[in-house]
Amino acid sequence: MNKRQVIIVWVIAIALGASVAALKFTHKPETQSSALRASGQTLFASFPAAQVAAIEIQGAAGAVTGIVRKDGKWTISQRDGYPANTSYVNEFIRTLGDLKVTRGIEAGPLNAPRFGMDESAVVPAERGLTATFKDASGTQIAKVSLGKNIENGAEPSPMGGPNAVGRYIRNHDDTVGFYAVAEMFPSVSAEASRWLADDFISPEKIKSITLSQKGKGDTAWKLTRDGEEAEFKLEGAVAAEVLDATVAGPLKNLFSYARFEDVVPAAKVADRVDAAGKRTTIIETFEGFTYTLTLTPGKAVAAAAPDPSNPQGAAAENSFLTVVVSAELPKERKKAEGEKPEDAKAKDAAFVERLKTLTEKLAKEKSLEGRTFEVAKSTVDVLMKEREQLIAKATPPPPAGPNTGSVQQFPGGIIAQPPGQGATAPIEAVSPPVSVPPAEDAPQDGEK
Questions:
Q1: Residues contacting 28, CB < 8 A, separation 6+
Q2: Rounded distance, CA 362 to CA 352, Å?
Q3: How far apart are CA 358 and CA 263, in angstroms?
Q4: Residue ranges of domains in the chain
Q5: Could you tell me which residue, 14 or 323, shows the higher pLDDT?
Q6: Measuring CA to CA, which of 100, 132, 159, 348 is 20 to 30 A from 139?
């Protein structure tokens, strides 16, 4: 072999080595597929669930730019790092790892609009959702698109339309197919508010409620009650002020099962709230909790078209709330005089368990401090009452008209009216005719 041949061999060897190296660094064995996935196979040969540290979701109307794992917990970067709904996030990741194909359709990426995955579309049904998964370094490790629902027209739903039985999905590393799956992904959304953890305040066993005047610190009214089963009383009520039980009653369960609509980023609070209408509420409970709430209406929303009847714009539908929570929890149980040892043991155990629950509740609710929550107006309407709205309204007697007086009804339906009421003609008493039975024939002579 001469020198020229040796050089040629070395050039070929180097070229082959470079090709192998390039393939090695560009190949993604855990997600890439060169063949259509068959029915019953998982969408991913191996979904890198353990590596996922961030998720981005794009849709037609918006985007979630960061569901981020921080210190072992999922957070929403668009909401100043507010905790995410861990169940939703983990369910999404787990579902993709276990997701099985029901049908594969051989088609390339250019066919995405056919399956409701047109990334240039502005209509949600045509755009679908695209989720990008990244590792801790920010490197993309997987990308999927969720498209149209798959409808079963053979079995109409109770609402009259077809039933959805699945959804089309695409693994962007799979360039040969789109897939039908039985999963609907109901919790996946491109709205950041839908991913927020839904823990909220829940005052229990309310003892008193104080509301400030609008835009002032002075007290508008205060309601108190003597025990958990007692009714509220209006503090400082005068004789003519009787508390309306139908208004005050719902306040016993104020914020029970309440939910918020969204968390407002700190940088946007000033643009959303009407500070002039701010009011403060203090809620105290029989178990030592104190909630200090700042309630603020939203700014009026400008109408799309000028409305002469409402030049200020439409009223904002939601309100805004911030909270500060504190508690003075008892260190030990107050024992009753003459308590039996066996009763004391059971009560002590119950006290310790309840104290643990309250301590955890305090920590969870204190984590809500420093946030501005957007809540539905209906959530706070029961609380935002003026003092006069708490007072029962006396029912006025019917207006007196001419020739009116008392009417008396006697047994048998007879109505006695006072003189001058009704017809003006004199009343004449007429006795009904008396029916007399015919007399029997007088006896003839000789008859007995």
A1: 173
A2: 15
A3: 25
A4: 49-195, 206-304+311-333+343-390
A5: 323
A6: 100
